[in-house]
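Quick entry between incubations.
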Amino acid sequence: MLHRTRFILLSGLVLCLAPVALSRQHPSLAQREEGFEKRAEKEIYRSPGELKAQDEAELRQGMKYLKLIKGDPTSKEIALTFDDGPHQHWTKQLLNLLRANHVRATFFVVGKMAERYPNLIRQELADGHQLANHTYHHVNLTNIPANEVASEYRMCDEAIHRITGRHMSYCRPPGGQYDHDVIQTTEKLGLTTVLWTEDPGDYAKPGDGVIQKRLMHCGHNGAIILLHDGIQQTLDVLPGMIKALRQKGYRFVTIDQMHHELATKLAQMSRSSESGRRAR
Ligand SMILES: [Zn+2]
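Done. Structure below.
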């Protein structure tokens, strides 16, 4: 609390004394408009280990956020998630591949890209995939003020609503970069933040062999796999990976299916422990 008060006082001081410095610190809307694809390529991703550690620290502090970091650990289900699209040259191939393999996935779409390629967004939905919010400009949300965090998510949602007539309930902060302020703002918009348990690092294009090797270790109950729309190497290795995971008995689900099943399971568990207590 003290820390936060100090932060507010300091922020006020900075606002009064150095508006120029502040505007340099926070990328303006015009700066966010510029080169966001390049920025997406250079994104620094938080590792699954870091995300787990942050989750555990939040729980220790009694913070319970609207957040999904993994699915049901007792269920052989996996969610494939594809970030940063749609892309003119890649999304169609990815959709064809998923259709041929009867896999439904979740697309964390960038609002600006959705506006460029609305037909691909419609096709994602028509194929039974889930659309989720990945901001309008693909920006690190911990670097911008709360009102702009809200506008990044709102603008993306409005773009998708204009194209599909639907709103999105799930979101992912670019790079997995979030803090208390970001997630509080996100919750006020009614969005559940989705992170990941597996990151084969396809965005860095390390080569088919490397991605394939890393993906082979992604078979865990309730895994959420971070992948990207727009990477040839991902398209190359995906069919083999889907086949291998199916052979191990995994099924592929969308994020809302995974979340719904987890919530149902938790509700059942709490009901049975409640009736167990009453029986005693
Ligand atoms: Zn991204």
